[in-house]
Amino acid sequence: xxxxxxxxxxxxxxxxxxxxxxxxxxxxxxxxxxxxxxxxxxxxxxxxxxxxxxxxxxxxxxxxxxxxxxxxxxxxxxxxxxxxxxxxxxxxxxxxxxxxxxxxxxxxxxxxxxxxxxxxxxxxxxxxxxxxxxxxxxxxxxxxxxxxxxxxxxxxxxxxxxxxxxxxxxxxxxxxxxxxxxxxxxxx
Length: 188
Hints:
The chain has helices at 2-27, 32-37, 39-45, 50-84, 90-120, 124-153, 160-174, 178-187. The chain is an all-alpha fold.
């Protein structure tokens, strides 16, 4: 059980830390490249709505992420069945599917953030840096901010109620980070 918990922890860390990079890589240049090459104005000159182009690019990236996540899940499940010799039960399949959906939603957020940077910034490098900066701030600094604000709101912890109050404040502020929400959702 200790080895499997360590492997699960590593997989969750890997998905939580490197998964956003995959979403950012798929989205940071999705609109910029079209704008620079001049194909975006040609597409929009046709009777195609701008929203349809943006939604199509987002759904294409989301489909790519979904295929990658679910194919990895099937491969890991197949290897697990081969090594253990026991197929997963229906309940386990439902949990694995739910886990896959949570991962896809998490990666979809980062894809949408990168695409928004690609829409609002004209330079691909600026878009990539803004997306990576957003990832770093939302993943790392929100936790530090939550701790600092919780220490300001509840400065002296002497009773169990004050400790619980500080923990609640810190938890709710940390939930502004998608990484915190992902870790809570996958921890369940």
